[in-house]
Input
Amino acid sequence: MNKYLSETDFIDCSNKSLKEVCKTVCSEGLSEKDNAIALYLYVRDSIKYDPYALTPSKSCFIASEVLKAGKGYCVSKAVLYAALLRSVNIPARLGFSDVVNHLSSKKLLDQMGTNIFYYHGYTEVFLNNRWIKATPAFDSKLCEVAGIPPLEFDGENDSKFQKLNIAGNVYMEYLQDHGCFDDVPYELLLAKYAQYYPALVDQDRKAHLNDLHTEIDNEVSIRD
Output
């Protein structure tokens, strides 16, 4: 279990800024489960979900850098959550799956060239002697705009993407699970992104100024 509590270059759990977040969000009087839930809500809602923030730079996958940026995509937010958990001595690891996303902006899907999100990232938390999946990717503001309920985490059941939106339409489907890792599989991720999203791993690419929240809000307004 030590490897799921250890610090790495990406999961820099002893970072001062991460420690400060834990001091603010967690409480010594709370159980591990309650602190894990509190940290989940912090990452979900305080760090803006931004798929355009994905770049091939290692800083995109370093927990303290994600915290500093205040935004990230599914993998980077999962890394931050894992680092915060390890910072309070709760074992955590990273998981990856391929998912079909039925509710994304047209602009984002056009850039990706597919509605399949390969190597979507989530966090696994070790609580009460078992591993539990948690996905703090989509912040509540984006969920409200998209018409989907925010994904909750109760510390007892797997928290994966919502299968249905508020209107009862299919929202997310899991296709294939790629297992769990004690650290960011950086080279593997870059290889997969180069295979499926070559434009996203252009070495000269910088984070886009596009905003998924605004794009979805505009598309919903047009439909209404």
Summary: The chain is about 35% helix and 20% strand.
